[in-house]
Design brief:
Blueprint lengths: L1 H10 L5 E3 L7 E7 L2 E8 L1 H17 L14 H15 L1 H18 L9 H9 L19 H20 L26 H14 L4 H10 L3 H4 L7 E2 L4 E4 L8 E4 L2 H13 L24 H10 L8 H13 L4 H8 L4 H4 L7 H9 L4
Antiparallel strand pairs: 1-2, 2-3, 4-5, 5-6
Helix pairs in contact: 3-4, 3-6, 4-6, 7-11, 8-10, 8-12, 12-13
Length: 366
Amino acid sequence: MLAMATRTATKKKSRGVFEKVPGSGVWWIQFYANGKRKREKVGRKSDAVALYQQRKAHVARGVKLPANMRHKGERLSEVIDRALGWYKEHKPKAYRSAKTHLERVKGDLGERVAADLTPHDIDVWLSRLTREPGNGYKQTKPESLTQATKNRYKATLGRALQLAVKSGHLQRNAARLVEARKENNTRERYLSADEESRIVAAIEKNYPGYLPAFIIALHTGMRQGEQFTMTWSMVDFESRKIRLPQTKNGKAHTVHLNQTAYNALQSLYKARPETCDTDRVFLSHRYKCQPLENPRQWFTDVCSEAEVENIKWHDLRHTFASRLVQKGVSLQTVSKLANHGSIAVTMRYAHLASEQLDDAVAMLDS
């Protein structure tokens, strides 16, 4: 009898509160004022119950209700929290970057009513985004984020709003009407042999355990995300290859190891802690047994000490491709080794093959 009473109480509906679309999680209220039925879309059930009691009290006291009866609904922070739950469940690999983006949106715009957010609001917010200090980065004045990074913020916020639309919590996705920034993808920064030597010396002095990560990046051209999520199960020492099951372009890719990269991986394998319950190749030396997710902090430190300016980890990938071209490797082969999405991406290195072009036209001399 007690269990039956509990189930009955659980199923009991709150007066004046209902879900227009069952299971949507979007609750409405319904009441009468001056003989006319009024309905308002609210959002969460608890908010709907509270607003219903408020409206009934106003009607009972004869308080004049506002002409615009639309309840503003949930805040953007609630949309973000729900989206982060979705990322954790459906896109765990993207959760870390999504959390970074959405937590910043939440800090700046979280108290705004999600339904009132306009494309102009989002565009202005993106325009004012600056790089945050910390994680080894020191700034003397606010530095604007790159156009590409702003586009990543826009895309992540757009996904969160679209999830709210699909679940019935919002009627529109304001981020869809925000025009994407024009990105400059022509950055060409390669390490010189002298810069490489100075960085290696700084790593050996301050972070010797991270030297293999630097060497492998230079000699394989792997993307940062691919490298630092790599596991030992992907490494085949016998064939000297790394088999990545999924890369940025959505396809599997085989990384070919030269002797230098092979030796660096072997040193990591021999030094791996036996007590750590993880298959990840790159581990933090500060937090034992924790995966090394991002090299930015220590890499920024060593570049500063080595007096190498304007260099990012991704530039090691550019260095890998540029050195191959300068050694006479064909652009088609470089494209395959670097796993470029198309040969058009590889063509940015074409100007480095001037000696090959000279040799080609020289063949006509005979």
